[in-house]
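Letters spell out the chain; backbone shape is given numerically. Both lines appear below:
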Amino acid sequence: MSSTFTWATGDAELEFTYADDQPVALSAYRVPAQSIDIRFVHPTPIVEILASGYGHWLACGKITHTTIGKGLRYVGHRTDRVAEPVQAGGSEGAGRLDISLRDPQSGIEAVVTYEIARESPMVRTWATVTNGGENDDVTLEAVTSFAGSFGSPTDGPVTTPDTFGDWTLSEADMDWLCEGRWHTTQLRSMFPRIHEELTGWDPRGRHQVVSTGTWSTGQHVPLAVLENRSLGLAWIFQIEHNGAWRWEIGQDTADGYIALAGPVEESHAWSKTLAPGASFTTVPASFTIAKDFNAATANLASYRRAWRQPHRDDVHPSVVFNDYMNTIYGDPTTAKELPLIKAAAEVGVQIFVIDCGWYDDTGNWWPSVGEWLPSKTRFPGEKGIVEVIDAIREQGMIPGIWLEPEVIGVESPVAAKLPDSAFITRNGKRVVEQQRYILDFRSKDTRDYMDSVIDRIVGEYGVGYFKLDYNVSPGAGSDYETDSLGDALLEHNRAYSAWIEGLRRRYPDLILENCSSGGMREDFAQLSRFQVQSTSDQQDWKLYPPIAAAAPMLMLPEQAASWAYPQSGMTAEETAFNINTTFLGRFFLSGYLNRMDDAQHALVASGIASYKRHVQPVIGSSVPFWPLGLPEWDAETVAYGLRPAESDAGKSAPTLVTVWVRDAHKGVIRLHLDHAKGRNATVSPVFPVEGFKTWPTTWHAEEGTLEIVAPTGVYASRTFAVTLD
């Protein structure tokens, strides 16, 4: 006979079912305010565990269908309120549920934890596994952070093998310079109908997505969307880790399944040996279910704001100028910086960042990183780099500087000063990637050294902004003092996150940018700790719009730093196109402003002024949406917007939409603003305005569509405000 218990907190409610001969399974997810009532008739264990000597009960390569997962039995549960969750985050008043389990055969004990912030119905979850035996060690090979089935509305049809194919999966491919390439696939094309129910066994296939090393979004992303329009359901799930991870979906006979995990043995050379009484905790994961994609992304945005570590710069994100992209490009000098500083202040910049090369005397800044002492040849004056930093501050801007804290260049004198144990090593040798040794943040020597660097730069120069870059990845991990390569890498990643938290505690006003060779580490473990996220290193302004438009799928709009780098040789339309690429995110500017004529200089200044007037006050509470769907890489037309959150829907804050047309575009654009359907609206241009041709617009209230007539055969962009009556 089965038993059920329900946990309600914030806006969400979870129901669990268990029995003496069945593991605990999530049986319902409800969000009454959104009329969401989901049942899970396929009893999937809430945690799956692979351990040496205990494999699968159904032979397969999945991280589900595990013998231990099937054998875990309910022990008890407790609820609590947490002001400061165990996993890093800033939400106060979150509800917490711990479910205790035990497998009598293996002696494995597990506590599966769920947390829900009062600001969002999205659920955060992880598992802690303990060796409950008295004599033998247990070696873990995989532990899920979340496992569950797709589900269906309580008042609708149950998913069957025949209806499974109605689900679609949206996932993204990533690479340097071409981040955020989202694509959608019908699940039936991944999982053919094979009538597995005739065998009495679930199918063995799965669609797995894996990231290795420490570029957590170097090839794929730890977030995906499942949508079933027939059922009126959309899932968003993510893994919150700045290192190796794996997620998979598949079809069981009764329903589809989802499994989310950090590193696992099969994919990442990870294992963890637990002595009796020892424990291991997985990386966190999170999920939400809503009626459609737009509602799910709204839940995701509110979740991110609830769980990130708060900072004064979140609500009104400062305008940033960085001297790197298509400008100084790693060759800073006093003579080059001073005119740029003056020009940046004149157009309204609030933070000025000196990028890479500031420490290098050799002329080759790449392999010399690590000592972090200012170059005397690049800044030859009596005050050295302080002359430049003082100039930034005197112009009313916050001085910022570039740092790559996780590496030491092979030509840096620090490479010989730190012991081998401070670096990621394999087979007794330091791992070398593109002339860099990679620091191991498990090492106290590493942490102490980098603390001294930060303290010196902040203390001596008064820097208020760090661009923290990371241009290499160490592979599977280290074999120094560890159970496995993968476990050393996991502990390094966790130690790095803890180091960032320590930095934040010491310098709470310091603004931190997460740049990992552009956008190679856009995971929520990083994004919950940083105020700014670089979206790409893309240097072609014509290619950037799909990157900029897709970026808020992985981050908050106010974090999304997409480059605008107007140059003196550009036309007014090209300059405006550049500015619109950064306009509905974190305003992130580069380019030789000091070489521009008066008209172009004024255009850049008007873009920043318009941003401060229209975007800066509202972006910190806005919800991203995509009125043409998530952009394809080669799309002729790209569109991205910000709308007020539901709690602000009745206020006067307008919906903002940016549209880019790229050369081959022809004809009328029809933007879908589903949240505004049935309401009258006034449409007005926001940027650019003065001196630019007007793009005619027509609002169709009954359809919730905005019709725009754009030019053809050009690269051009406009941002509009849609104010609802």
